[in-house]
Design a protein that fits this description.
By secondary structure, the protein is of the alpha/beta class. The C terminus is likely disordered. It folds into 3 domains: about 250 residues, TIM Barrel; about 200 residues, Rossmann fold; about 55 residues, Immunoglobulin-like (Sandwich). Helix content is about 30%, strand content about 20%.
Length: about 675
């Protein structure tokens, strides 16, 4: 056994002689796992009552005969052209109210009975045909679910969803605060999806009624989840055991992956960072994906071996970066390393997307050599990391409801973006080497010494009490500006800000000052001064100790950062939009109190992560994201499991994995 290695393969695009070349090159690169059938619906079902499995049969048979493991897709990521012509209801209506015609992908209305019927049936037939094939190790439903629809079918589905959620119109009117602007609803049929034609102006984030828009975001996420559940249930009729998944997109706002996690047998996701300087952001996404199912390892379902092809500019991964980022995924919990794509497509929008095998089919390119070298490393490592988990004592709370609610709010600042705040605090933890879990607000907190809750705008489900318990038993809670503002319906608490968190944090906030990004109000902490921007809350201590103060404006000298003693622990509050170095300063103090700094905390650009195998062995991963070699501390001793010899100096883009007996710094 070893980590599955390979990725998306589309042989339906090529003649047989190309298949022969592909498998020769797969062997050279140690490729052992192929994801097939992702966009074959139009071939598999060329007409409403016609199913043709001849192409998919050849693909599956050849992969099995070559000894490859197969992740078999249902092909429903985009519907066929005949379906849109025969059943116009399957195409989406966009935010501006325009009914789309056939084209692109992400083009199916999740509420369409025709789409649900056809997608379920093709999944059922595929599973019925291929279930029991020993080469199939996973089923892949759909592809990168996302987008939204605003058609009449979705409007009707939304009303049904609301009746199930609220029960009565009275409860709904109260939740949505409909006495504002004469919006009281007296019949369910009066309710419209919030769109450019109803509650919105200037785009999807500008809404007159946040409660309505928030619920539509929840509904649309649930509607697409229903599509996934349809297909998974169809697969289970023929195959009760082989795991079923779909590929998530990491830090993707439209779908609440926490609501989906229970329905996936394992999480998989596609890693396409916005640039080539996003090591910390990728770490956050990996940690979020791992945290969806309580720390269970995930699959890296897609990454490019070289370039993407969907942005204005598409930087090439420099030599060694593909290897580095692949090992980073393993360090954070990946039990598979897969690519999009195996061979570069000849036409259409992804013909310039990176691939293991380019258009010329050569094996002497730099990209192919790097893929082959990584394949050899993973083969040499074997099963050492499979099933390993992260022994985290730090949790970072991530909440789609807070993300949505904060960014559709008309105040205090539209310049404050939820993901920017979360990324800043995660990056501090990442820089300082803390092993952490990124978890939902509903997760148990008992096993964590530190809980970081950035921009926890919405408080619900007894979360305030559970955070209070963390501090009471000796842990530390770190919260930030714009926390504790609204309840689960996005209505403000009739209490001092930060609402249910006020007693734990020992503060209140009466006023806040939102400014453009050019305005800086410095904050002084422990003799050092740091910039802060965008939002400045005027924090009034109610028992909390002042740790940092503002330097300018009429509130100069007042509290910007506080620490409250609660029970045996502490609760910190950062009321200003601190710069990265300011946030890292606060986080360092918190981690130091609990002895949770990593062994390379003082080495810039060096990332560490620990995984514990099912046998209890601890593995320390060390990754150098910098451009110069670094000398490693004594904790990084012994033989590197990748190279087989001791590594005390790690070069640029370098990776080392040290065995358990040398990673006792957390014990």
């Amino acid at each position: 056994m070893r980590i599955p290695y390979g990725g998306d393969y589309n042989p339906e695009q090529w003649p047989k002689e190309v298949w022969d070349d592909d498998y020769r090159l797969f062997a050279a690169a140690r490729i052992d796992t192929l994801t097939v059938g992702v966009f074959t619906w139009g071939l598999t079902q060329p007409a409403p009552d016609v199913y043709d499995f001849s192409t998919l049969d050849r693909i599956v048979e050849r992969a099995g005969a070559e000894g490859k493991r197969i992740c078999l897709a249902t092909g429903t990521g985009a519907h066929p052209a005949w379906m849109a012509r025969a059943h116009p209801s399957v195409t989406r209506t966009d935010f501006e109210g325009r009914r789309h015609r056939f084209g692109q992908r992400h083009n199916s209305c999740p509420s369409s009975p025709d789409f649900r019927r056809y997608s379920t049936e093709v999944a059922r037939r595929i599973a019925e045909r291929y279930a029991g094939n020993p080469a199939i190790i996973a089923w892949h439903v759909g592809n990168e679910y996302g987008g939204a629809c605003y058609c009449e079918l979705c409007a009707a589905g939304f009303r049904d969803w609301l009746q199930s959620r609220y029960g009565t119109l009275s409860a709904l009117n109260e939740a949505w605060y409909t006495t504002f602007w004469s919006h009281t609803f007296t019949d369910w049929d009066e309710i419209e999806p919030p769109s450019a034609l109803t509650e919105h102006w200037r785009g999807p984030d500008h809404t007159a009624f946040q409660g309505i828009t928030l619920d539509y975001l929840r509904f649309m996420s649930d509607a697409m989840l229903a599509n996934y559940r349809d297909e998974k249930a169809a697969i289970r009729q023929s195959d009760p055991d082989t795991p079923v998944t779909t590929n998530f997109m990491g830090l993707y706002r439209p779908i609440d992956y926490h609501r989906w996690a229970a329905d996936l047998d394992f999480v998989s996701w596609d890693n396409y960072p916005p640039d080539d300087r996003s090591a910390a952001r990728m770490a956050l996404a990996h940690d979020l994906m791992r945290g969806l199912k309580g720390g269970q390892p995930f699959w890296l379902m897609e990454q490019t071996p070289s370039v993407t092809a969907c942005r204005d500019v598409n930087p090439l991964k420099r030599p060694g970066v593909m290897r580095l980022w692949s090992w980073q995924a393993v360090a954070h919990g990946a039990d598979a390393v897969l690519f999009f794509q195996m061979r570069a497509g000849r036409g259409a929008s992804e013909k310039y997307h990176g691939a293991v095998i380019g258009h010329a089919g050569r094996s002497d390119t730099r990209v192919f050599r790097e893929v082959a070298d990584l394949g050899a490393e993973l083969s040499s490592l074997g099963a050492v990391t499979l099933g390993a988990r992260t022994p985290a004592k730090v949790a970072l709370l991530f909440d789609w409801d807070s993300w949505w609610a904060l960014e559709i709010s008309d105040g205090p600042s539209r310049l404050v973006r939820y993901l920017d705040v979360v990324t800043t605090y995660h990056r501090a933890l990442w820089q300082l080497g803390a092993d952490l879990d990124v978890i939902p607000v509903t997760a148990p907190l008992d096993s964590y010494d530190v809980v970081v809750a950035p921009a926890l705008h919405m408080i619900k489900d007894g979360l305030a009490d559970r955070l209070t318990e963390v501090a009471s038993r000796g842990g530390t809670v770190l919260a930030t500006f714009l926390s504790g503002r609204v309840d689960g319906n996005d209505n403000a608490f009739l209490a001092d800000v930060p609402g249910p968190l006020a007693r734990l944090l020992g503060i209140r906030v009466d006023e806040w000052d939102a400014r453009e990004a050019s305005v800086v109000n410095p904050v002084t902490m422990n003799g050092s001064t740091f910039e802060s921007r965008l939002l400045f809350e005027l924090v009034i201590p109610q028992g909390a100790e002042v740790v940092g103060t503002y330097r300018s404006d009429f509130y100069a000298g007042t509290a910007a950062v506080t620490r409250n003693t609660h029970g045996a622990g502490h609760a910190w509050y950062v009321g200003a939009g601190l710069s990265q170095d300011g946030v890292t300063h606060v986080v360092r103090e918190v981690l130091t109190r609990h002895g949770l700094l990593g062994p390379c905390a003082d080495l810039p650009d060096v990332e560490t992560a620990v995984r514990v195998t099912p046998d209890g062995d601890r593995l320390l991963f060390v990754l150098n994201h910098g451009t110069v070699p670094v000398d490693l501390p004594a904790a990084c001793a012994g033989p590197d499991l990748i190279s087989g010899h001791p590594v005390r100096t790690l070069g640029p883009n370098g990776v080392a994995v040290y065995p358990s007996q040398f990673t006792k710094y957390h014990d």
